Amino acid sequence: MAVILDARGLEKRFGAVTAASNINVSVEQGAIVGLIGSNGAGKTTFLNMVTGYLRPDAGSILFDGRDITGQKPRRITQQGICRSFQIPQLYNSMSVAENLMVGVGIVASGGRGWAASNALDGTPEQAVSRMLEQFGLAGLRHRQAGLLPEGTRKLLDIAMAMVVRPRVLLLDEPTSGVSADEKFALMDMVMAAVRAMQVTVLFVEHDMEVVERYVQRILAFYEGRIIADGPPAEVLRDVEVRRFVIGEQDPPAGDRHA
Amino acid sequence: MSQIPAVLADAVVYASWLFVIAVGLTLIYGVMKILNIAHGSLYALGAYSAVTLAGGWLAKGYAPLGSYAMLALAALLVGLIAGPVIERGLLRFLYAKDEIVLVLVTYALFLILEDAIKLTWGVDPMFVAEPYALLGNFEIAGLTYPTYTLVLVAAAIVVGLALWWALGFTRSGKMLLAVIHDREMSAAMGVNVGLTYFVTFTIGAFLAALGGALTAPTISVVTGMGAEVIVTAFAVVVIGGLGSLGGAALGAVIVGLVRSAAVHYQPELELFSIYLVMAAVLIARPKGLFSGAEVRKI
Amino acid sequence: MSVHRTSVALVAAAGALLALGPVIPNWAVSLVNVSLGIGVVVLGMMVLMRTGLVSFGHGLYYCLGAYAAGLASNRFGAPDMLAMVAGGALAALLVSAVLGLLLAKYREIFFAMLSLAFSMILYGLLVKSADLGSTDGFNVHAKSIAGFAVEGDAHRLGVYSVIVITAALCALLLDAYLRSHRGRLAEAIRDNELRVEYMGASVFATVHLNYVISAVLAGVGGALMAIHIGHIDPEMTYWPQSGEFVFIGILSGTGSVFAPLLGSVVFETVRSYAYEKSPDTWQMVLGVTMLMVIVFLPGGLWSLASRLRGRPDSARTGG
């Protein structure tokens, strides 16, 4: 498999705090990667650098072989990397379908900056309907986004990232704020959609149950560094990971749910 | 002959006047996040009340010096009546609205008060020149000034010092500063935000009225004076930084200097120059000269 | 492609007004002229409000459009109404394209204040320009329409027709824009700018475009009013005039391009009635109305209309 995302030597400091130190990550196309680590370990900083919200102090990010380091979020989205948010970023006054239509409309009216892979098949209305089906939101299409329950907001937030047809999707804590009995249903839905669209996924997650169930590879962050990188079974057995990420007393993994 | 002394002297007078009006506006914005267009109407209300009270006092043939007390009384009455009525009767129901919607609310209030003034005092210009004439003139650096202008300058200094002392050295003043700094936090810490708003608005209204009452003897009091003054006051508080008391002083000095210089050197640029400075400051430092940067987190 | 309902209704309404032109009394002609002239400016306010912006300085473009029309007519030998409207639009376009580069970064109260500053700069210039009549302004004479000289009754009807047709055209074009993908970004920006950027669109470019559109509409409205009234003065860019536009925008709501036009008719009718009955309290009536709308009808009069038809209304006031 070809490498689609390649981060080399990323550094980021906020005053005295090192948020990223020599981060090297290479992700193959179609991979599902989990990013774990305690709060402040640098997971979200990494995600923010890849999506252009933060500019790294040093290092470079290559997407599909092209350098996207320090580009604006809008340009990065256009090239095929999109993200969801820990706190859902919706258009609260609009309906669920309209929320998705904004993204479809942006892609449809296109422009120079857009990658060919983003192109819609069918009409904008069809694209919205397909996405609503895929995320189980069809029954809620006319509901106002601002009035949805939190679990549905998270789902819509992810659908809004998917609707511009990215090749790489970054999810920032997709199950935070979602009740324990809903989280697997939500993730099943997201993963089915991701597989259908052949998207590479990186997601930040605190819940080890979720991580173990869905990912093929884990990146463990600690104090701005990556301390382990590999298949879940291997990484979760790592001594450092057990101490710094999961906790020394070795509690049942499920209790780490954020 | 150099005009510089005249420019500076005029600037001091004008800046004093601006400060008294603008400091109330910025105080209300800082604490309540309301950019109060009706501040202009309160100013006009102060001026009209001053004409009525001081004029009435003098018409009765009482001691002319008492007319100064009447000016102060006019400002006090407007502050203590209009302030609480507006805050308790209207604004407190709308605090949850957006900042920009609150501007519109005060604009509606401005329209209402403008007509209330017309209904009460009519549309003919009114005068009460005695307090102005009474004090005669004085000379400084070869320039003759009405002594009354010193009253304005003194008022600005007293207001400035009083606010500085109240905010820096009293318990309730420190609470007020805390609310300016972080509204949610201070509410959580047990500051009575409702009471703070009430007091702030009343003080702000008083300051607007004081500006009007002190100005009344120097001008003909006419309809529309509120509209004129509020936009100048906006320029002052925007230049200094909305909600910053020090900024209001700095803004008043800058606008005072700019206008005074324009009047002496290029009279046709008088208004233009004030708003040019306002736009320039907004462009260079959107949050005014006295402000720090904010960062958004996601 | 099917023609949208709103377009049909606009053309029908314009047709009806044009047909009525010769038979309705003078006061009605005048009411329509003023309402639609101002209505076009308020269409511009609507674009801004949908983007979540409130300008306390749109009198700038209203005044600029009027002065450009007046100068085109009196100085540059183009007393043709269409040339005057084009001149007004062009002046607003040029100035707003430049100022928009600055303003498109501003939001909320800072946007309102910088707009205000710009409009007051023009005011400060105009009141001291003896050449342009200072505070008195000057008279404007529109003499022809598309090359055909008009006088007397034909002039009266000509002005009316130009205003009705221009207003309808502006509304038609604006409606098409607002229904386009780009146009719909306005409300997305009002709701969540961050998401718009992460969906791959430029917030700055859209805000800039919407600002220019709203300015051109204000410029056209100013030119129309110059033609109708035959006189222009610096009060057109004084802040209470801008406040009035905001007022009518809030009163109207942003649910449809009809809202500003109808809201403007309501406003002008109430104003002329209230002014006649009680010249000293009409502002009070306006102020109370505005408070009522803000408190009880935040979507404006148009939301009332759609509520009566039993449809949910996504439109709200700006901010």
Spatial order of the strands forming the largest sheet of chain C: 1-4
Biggest interface between protein chains, with counts per chain?
A: B-C, 48 and 45 residues
* Tally of DSSP β-strands of chain A: 10
Q: Sum up the overall morphology of chain A in one term.
A: globular
Helix % of chain A is: 25-40%
| Dominant shape of chain C | globular
Portion of residues in beta strands of chain A equals 15-25%
* Order of neighbouring strands in the sheet with most strands of chain A: 6-7-8-3-9-10
Question: What is the chains' assembly state?
Answer: heterotrimer
**Class inferred from helices and paired strands of chain A:** alpha/beta
**Radius of gyration over C-alpha positions of chain C, nearest whole angstrom:** 19 Å
Helices and strands of chain C, in order, run as HHHHHEEEHHHHEHHHH
Q: Tell me the number of helical segments of chain A per DSSP (H or I, 4 or more residues long).
A: 9
Spell the H/E element sequence of chain A. EEEHEEHEHHHEHEHEEHH
- Tally the beta strands of chain C: 4
Fill in the keyword field for this structure.
heterotrimer, A: 258 residues, alpha/beta, 6-stranded mixed sheet, 9 helices, disordered C terminus, C: 319 residues, mainly alpha, two-stranded antiparallel sheet, 3% strand
